[in-house]
Amino acid sequence: MQIRSLCLVALLAAAPAFAQTPRPLVLDDQDNERVLSDPQLSPEGTWIAYAVAAVDKKQDKAITHVFMTSWDGKQTLQMTSTPNASEKKPKFSPDGRYLAFLSGRGDEKEIEQLWLLDRAGGEAEKITETKGSINDYAWSPDGKRLALIVEDADPDEDEEGEAKDKKKAKKPIVIDRFHFKEDIDGYLGKKRDRLHVLDLADRKLTRITSGEFDDAMPAWSPDGKRIAFVSRRSRPDFDRDDNYDVFLVDAVENATPRALTTYPAADNKPDYKSPLAFSPDGTQLAYLQGPSLKLFEYGVRKLAVVPVGGGAPRLFAESLDRNVRAPVWSKDGKSIRLLVEDDRTVYLGEVSLRDGALKSVLQGRNVVGAYVAAAGKEAVLLSTPTAPAEIFALDNGKPRQVTKHNAWLQTVQTTPADEIAFKSADGTEIHGLLYKPPGFVAGRKYPTVLRIHGGPQAQYQLSYSFEMQLLAARGYLVVTANPRGSTGRGEAFSSAIYASWGKKDGDDVLAAVDYVVAQGMADPARLGVGGWSYGGLLTNYVIARDTRFKVATSGASASNILAGYGTDQYTRDYEMELGRPWEATQTWLNLSDPFLHADRIKTPTLFLCGEKDFNVPLLNSEQMYQALKSLGLDTQLVIYPGQFHGIKRPSYKRDVLERYLAWYDKYLGGSAKEGGAP
């Protein structure tokens, strides 16, 4: 057993000092948080552009704007400020004159177009008029063209982009694809994301690729003649698996793409959020080679480099049993820096192309969310348990904070995350995080909430979580675990629950509760549990096998796994992992224990879900609610109109947390006043 507390003083030394005594964190503080993303260094290395998302309470939505901060951190400029629309994904032109971004401003349907902002002054100019949104883009090396990923127009609109006769019924939705639905996108038809090139001189948009395939993640070769991208166009029926490959195509109309990779797995799957990267001399391309199709998200993604002229890819740091992403070449082409996911952290590493050795460049008990480099300068996006992500410049490898968008937190009482380790039922060591209420008193037993993460291929990290801080501020001891199935501990650890959910990972999260009870911190008579997505699913498994929990919250969850087939977006994953229901019926039934044996549940449970969730559809929560209602248990079902798998509307996000607090307080006797101790 071990417990280790985090010291964050060094990382926050640059933050302003506040004289007043820190106040308790309250629910209203959710609207104060600023979320930073997409840092980009200017070519000369003197400015860092990035996006900042903030809640607009009046419009009840999060709005993102583009900012720039000087390298020394002394000057911060807000570059965009449209009141009712977001601007995102800023990228400098190669000569540094322009700052491009994507925005749907000025469009009723918020179809995102490409905009250019001249850094010499003046208003941003919209330079595209596509019928469908632009999802991604990349500058050519000479700055005269841009590669765009453009979504097809809505087939229910006419050529002018207006909705067809509104008095008539919409066309029937005709489905003929194997993978036919997806969260947010809805029912999938013939719309595709296609590669185009925009010439800045005449604003001409040229379609590069053809065929009924989706293209993603464009990257220009250094000579500006070709574009690399990822697609499943090698597959005759691409909907049946995630076998992405990397392609290279000449940047001319209707060119024929050439496959650079043919590995039967997900080479640089867009979900990895890892850009393709050409070597400085243009002869090689770095990308991520995914695990086998059989393991899909349970497997580990590795750094690969493929010769652009043809030949077999080479894996680097091959023995590293951890996920990596976002490769960035050194200027001399001899090494690649990248982000490495490790136990509860993400650090910046460097791989030598001479011998494949990996070394740590920036490692600590924190999470590095992004890395950028230009003109000999480097910067990272970095978060800790008590501080949301901010941008840090690297001075001789040491982080120096240059943005302070969340300095308000210095006036608030937050709690660090203690790292804990404990043994599961079979002796496997499990790691987690523990959040103590502010003013924690040793020897006192606190009402305790076990929170379970989604995925399951994810991990609780040493980064900021408003939810954890709020529960702790309420007076709860909050315990989290990264059970088997989680990432950050290697492929065998992650795949240990393959086709067997709720058992080993159920043992692991219950062991976290056993641990804090044994340490004398948790009151065994006042235990709660909850999670979202797979975290909600595992919550259902846990309360169906263990009656010690006095209360539970289950968000966007499932229990009757058989009901998921054909009603959610995971059919191909199900068939890979579980087999087809008519061929492996018992496997599906075994995984449906919480629903088929709902009579074992004694825990009052709050179910929550988005109305339009296609990831884990509402019907799953409805079934569990109905089962517990039939059994006479105290239960509620809360449905958020118009929301998908992740609740985005700020007022609904607040409502979720309010209901968490009220439901836990009702059964665990938590504080009736935020910030107080029970």
TrEMBL record:
Q: What does this protein do?
A: This enzyme catalyzes the hydrolysis of the N-terminal peptide bond of an N-acetylated peptide to generate an N-acetylated amino acid and a peptide with a free N-terminus. It preferentially cleaves off Ac-Ala, Ac-Met and Ac-Ser. Also, involved in the degradation of oxidized and glycated proteins.
Task: Supply the alphabetized keyword list.
Answer: Acetylation, Hydrolase, Protease, Serine protease, Signal
The region annotated as signal peptide is 1-19
The protein's GO terms of the molecular function aspect are: serine-type endopeptidase activity
PANTHER family, alphabetically?
DIPEPTIDYL PEPTIDASE FAMILY MEMBER 6 (PTHR42776:SF27), SERINE PEPTIDASE S9 FAMILY MEMBER (PTHR42776)
Q: What Pfam families has UniProt attached to this entry?
A: PD40, Peptidase_S9
Q: What protein am I looking at?
A: Acyl-peptide hydrolase
Q: Which InterPro entries match?
A: 6-blade_b-propeller_TolB-like (IPR011042), AB_hydrolase_fold (IPR029058), Pept_S9_AS (IPR002471), Peptidase_S9_cat (IPR001375), WD40 (IPR011659)
Name the PROSITE patterns on file.
PRO_ENDOPEP_SER
Keyword rRNA processing belongs to the record: no
Q: Which residues form the Peptidase S9 prolyl oligopeptidase catalytic domain?
A: 463-670
Supply one GO BP term. proteolysis
Q: Which domain of life is it from?
A: Bacteria
